[in-house]
TrEMBL record:
<dbReference type="Pfam" id="PF00580">
    <property type="entry name" value="UvrD-helicase"/>
</dbReference>
<keyword id="KW-0413">Isomerase</keyword>
<feature type="domain" description="UvrD-like helicase ATP-binding">
    <location>
        <begin position="10"/>
        <end position="290"/>
    </location>
</feature>
<keyword id="KW-0067">ATP-binding</keyword>
<feature type="domain" description="UvrD-like helicase C-terminal">
    <location>
        <begin position="291"/>
        <end position="564"/>
    </location>
</feature>
<comment type="function">
    <text>Has both ATPase and helicase activities. Unwinds DNA duplexes with 3' to 5' polarity with respect to the bound strand and initiates unwinding most effectively when a single-stranded region is present. Involved in the post-incision events of nucleotide excision repair and methyl-directed mismatch repair.</text>
</comment>
<dbReference type="GO" id="GO:0005829">
    <property type="term" value="C:cytosol"/>
</dbReference>
<dbReference type="GO" id="GO:0016887">
    <property type="term" value="F:ATP hydrolysis activity"/>
</dbReference>
<dbReference type="InterPro" id="IPR027417">
    <property type="entry name" value="P-loop_NTPase"/>
</dbReference>
<dbReference type="InterPro" id="IPR013986">
    <property type="entry name" value="DExx_box_DNA_helicase_dom_sf"/>
</dbReference>
<dbReference type="GO" id="GO:0005524">
    <property type="term" value="F:ATP binding"/>
</dbReference>
<feature type="binding site">
    <location>
        <begin position="31"/>
        <end position="38"/>
    </location>
    <ligand>
        <name>ATP</name>
    </ligand>
</feature>
<dbReference type="InterPro" id="IPR014017">
    <property type="entry name" value="DNA_helicase_UvrD-like_C"/>
</dbReference>
<dbReference type="GO" id="GO:0000725">
    <property type="term" value="P:recombinational repair"/>
</dbReference>
<dbReference type="GO" id="GO:0009314">
    <property type="term" value="P:response to radiation"/>
</dbReference>
<dbReference type="GO" id="GO:0003677">
    <property type="term" value="F:DNA binding"/>
</dbReference>
<dbReference type="Pfam" id="PF13361">
    <property type="entry name" value="UvrD_C"/>
</dbReference>
């Protein structure tokens, strides 16, 4: 066999090389962040192709995000050119399963053109079932049912195989509702996300001939980020690898961050048992980050119990310490980040200069993004939001998508329900009921039933005319899709013809403008696809904000979406208890959720190559109220020697804000000045100056002090949500002693108290 030279092997260390060259039998690569797992996995694919062990379509390679798949494909192409054409099975679990399921849909009672529902549709459907079952939706919300059902699907448990121990879920009615929900999906010719894998696992289990075909087709199986596979994904892999066992999984138990979505880190531990004789490879050299960054990340993750444990080292120089900075509030944090980005671009921070593409902001929760987006829009800093379903989740985008879906597939009843009266067409509840009844009686889709309603004049004059117009439009758009007319033209025609655009143009609310912009953006993004179907599929799977990548932009994303990525500069804002770690993880009694948050912190810090900047705010607005925040407990866990505490710029300038202000602004400024003048805050700052990062140890307590001391005085009246009103009797580091009128004396964290007037 003519083997081509193999430059892709050069530069790999011996352990990586072993992972690349051990092609027969199971291989598990278990190693910390930045040790070159993904790089080795990619080289392995190149090696398989280069040694002609398999054709591109015989390699099944599963990545965690579409972005990761795209990057892997680019790298393989760069190394092999044409030879890598036809890697049809490189993608996420979901994208691969959609393709498989379209081929075998009939085996689970679906047609190949099934629709993929998003979580919104899923909830709406469940709500209908809950109402039909006469269940009090307030006590038993659809969301709770969705969680139960998703949980089952993540374990590939179909309605007929629910363990008796789960029988009591959702008031004992989850089992029946689950069966009904699945039946409803089948009638709609639809699947939800969880179904994609569950259906495929069921098909493989029930039809050995189908399974066998794919066991032979996929000669090599490779899986990145294996620590985040759930049970259904695990079963699916085990079934497919069952024949030849040429499976290579790479992962890091310290980066398991999807436990809440059913991922089981135990899958890693089980690997050697399931695939006896597996070669286990450990990588220890980190190639990504400088010394201080790696040490800081290692210090944090060391606080977790039950780790497999591993050593990480780097040849790289120590580099910059992790930078830590506290701000008065999150607005100031966003402002500071914006300025810092520009300074790093100019190279005036003693390092760099860096391009915008080299920098990323990683947030714990997507709601933190808006503040940065707003700020960057204001100062004209180009940014992109990565990985989140943000853009496609917006109301106007979802409405537009429903129009497109119904134009493509006239049986998409959920889409019909969503838009039938949006914009308002005088088709209220009664009209919809008539259409639904007709659909049920005749066993047809809502759109077709609407046609019958019009024909038989089952509605009053105005509604009838309006419905007639709508049905006609949809038939026309559907024909246009079938005739292969430009999908961009069709989309424009739909948005204008349906009156949807006009609806927002007439709307006088401040956000209408932005929505119209978004709709334009949506039509623009169609250009990347061959046709409407391809686009809809992409959106339901990716839900990623495809922005203009031609110009340099800073990336904003959640920590979850940052997995596997790397950037020279990483901002980690919002490190406050209740934000990060999340409130949910703090409320839980066990440590499991908190440890998952800590792994997320580890993922975050290890994304950085040269600069990592952690920040927190002392106060934050929630539901229109300013709340004091505690710096994250993870800040305490950073090793002091690897951290440098920065001084907020507002402290240096002395003054703040514009000359003319509203009373509220004056008050806010006064409060702020108090915080900065408070002994606590100044102690924190001077400590950090005197002892470098050493001052940081008590940064949390000091900020508690700082926030508490201007607010509370001895004898002051305060209010606590649980204990009611009381008076302050003593103050010490971060805590306040309060004699409550009813609940007696309590020692409390200051931030649980608000000053009371009475
Ligand atoms: P994560 O756990 O975050 O997914 P990873 O283990 O997959 O990390 P990679 O992303 O593959 O790590 O590699 C991290 C960085 O190190 C990349 O920039 C990669 O190109 C580089 N790298 C990996 N192996 C080597 C090597 N042998 N020599 C030089 N650079 C390497
Ligand atoms: Mg990786």
């Amino acid at each position: 066999m003519g083997v081509r030279p193999s430059p892709y092997l050069e530069g790999l260390n011996p352990a990586q090389r072993a992972a690349v060259e051990t092609l027969d039998g199971p291989v598990l690569m278990l190693a910390g962040a930045g040790t070159g797992k993904t790089r080795a996995l990619t080289a392995r694919i190149v090696h398989i192709l280069n040694t002609q062990r398999a054709y591109p379509r015989q390699i099944l390679a599963v990545t965690f995000t579409n972005k990761a798949a795209r990057e892997m494909r680019l790298r393989i192409n760069a190394m092999l050119g044409d030879q890598a054409e036809g890697m049809a099975w490189l993608g996420t679990f979901h994208s691969v399963c959609v393709k498989l399921l379209r081929r075998h849909a009939e085996l689970v009672g679906l047609r190949p053109d099934f629709t993929i529902l998003d979580s919104d549709d899923q909830l709406r459907l469940m709500k209908q079932l809950i109402i039909a079952a006469n269940i009090d939706e307030k006590r038993w919300p659809a969301r709770a049912l969705a969680n139960v059902i998703d949980g089952w699907k993540n374990k590939a448990i179909a309605p007929d195989s629910i363990p008796t121990s789960d029988a009591s879920f959702y008031d004992g009615r989850a089992m029946r509702l689950y069966a009904e929900y699945q039946e409803r999906l089948r009638q709609l010719n639809a699947v939800d996300f969880g179904d994609l894998l569950m259906h495929m696992v069921r098909i493989f289990q029930k039809y050995p001939d189908v399974l066998q075909k794919y066991q032979q087709d996929f000669k090599y199986i490779l899986v990145d980020e294996y620590q985040d596979t759930n049970v259904a994904q695990y079963l699916w892999l085990r079934l497919l690898a069952g024949g030849h066992s040429n499976i290579c999984c790479v992962g890091d138990d310290d980066q398991s961050i999807y436990g809440w979505r059913g991922a089981e880190v135990g899958n890693i531990l089980r690997f050697e048992r399931d695939f006896p004789g597996a070669t286990v490879i450990r990588l220890e050299q980190n190639y990504r980050s400088t010394g201080h960054i790696l040490a800081a990340a290692s210090g944090v993750i060391a606080k977790n119990g039950g780790r497999l444990g591993k050593t990480l080292w780097t040849q790289s120089y120590m580099g910059e310490k992790v930078r830590l900075i506290g701000h008065w509030d999150n607005e100031e944090e966003a402002r500071w980040v914006g300025e810092e980005i520009e300074a790093l671009q100019r190279g005036t921070r003693g390092i760099g200069p860096f391009e915008l593409d080299d920098m990323a902001i990683l947030v714990r929760a997507s709601h933190q993004m808006r503040g940065f987006e707003d700020r960057f829009l204001a100062i004209g800093l180009p940014y992109r939001v990565i990985g989140g379903p943000r853009f496609y989740e917006r109301l106007e985008i979802r409405d537009a998508m429903a129009y497109f879906r119904l134009a493509v597939s006239s049986t998409d009843d959920l889409a019909f329900e969503r838009i039938v009266n949006t914009p308002k067409r005088g088709l209220g509840e009664k009209a919809v009921q008539t259409i639904q009844r007709t659909a049920r009686e005749r066993g047809m889709s809502l759109l077709d039933a609407a046609g019958v309603v019009v024909e038989q004049r089952l509605l009053g004059g105005k509604a009838l005319a309006s419905l007639g117009g709508l049905v006609q439009q949809f038939y026309r758009w559907h024909d246009a899709v079938l005739a292969g007319r430009s999908h961009i033209e069709i989309a424009e025609e739909i948005l204008d013809g349906s009156g949807y655009t006009t609806m927002w143009q007439n709307e006088k609310t401040p956000d209408a403008e932005g929505r119209l912009e978004n709709l334009k953006e949506l039509v623009k993004s169609l250009d990347n696809f061959e046709n409407m179907q391809g686009f809809l599929e992409h959106v339901s799977l990716v839900a990623e904000n495809e922005s203009d990548d031609s110009q340099p932009q800073i990336s904003i994303m959640t920590l979850h979406a940052a997995k596997g990525l790397e950037f020279p500069v990483v901002f980690l804002p919002g490190w406050e208890d209740g934000i990060f770690p999340s409130q949910r993880s703090l409320d839980e009694s066990g440590l499991a959720a908190l440890e998952e948050e800590r792994r997320l912190a580890y993922v975050g810090i290890t994304r950085a190559e040269r600069v990592a900047i952690i920040s927190f705010a002392a106060t934050r607005f929630f539901h229109g109220q300013r709340q004091s925040m505690l710096p994250s407990r993870f800040i305490d866990e950073l090793p002091h020697d690897d951290v440098e505490v920065l001084t907020p710029p507002t402290l240096n300038n002395g003054h703040y804000g514009a000359a003319s202000s509203s009373p509220a602004q004056v008050e806010e400024r006064a409060a702020k000045a108090d915080v900065y003048n408070s002994p606590g805050w100044q102690r924190m700052q001077s400590r950090s100056v005197q002892r470098g990062a050493g001052g940081m140890k008590s940064a949390r307590n000091v900020v508690i002090d700082a926030v508490a001391s201007p607010v509370f005085e001895l004898g002051q009246r305060v209010f606590h949500q649980k204990f009611g009103y009381g008076a302050v009797t003593a103050l010490d580091a971060g805590k306040v002693m309060v004699a409550f009128d009813k609940a007696g004396e309590k020692h409390l964290m200051a931030h649980f108290l608000v000053p009371a007037a009475q």
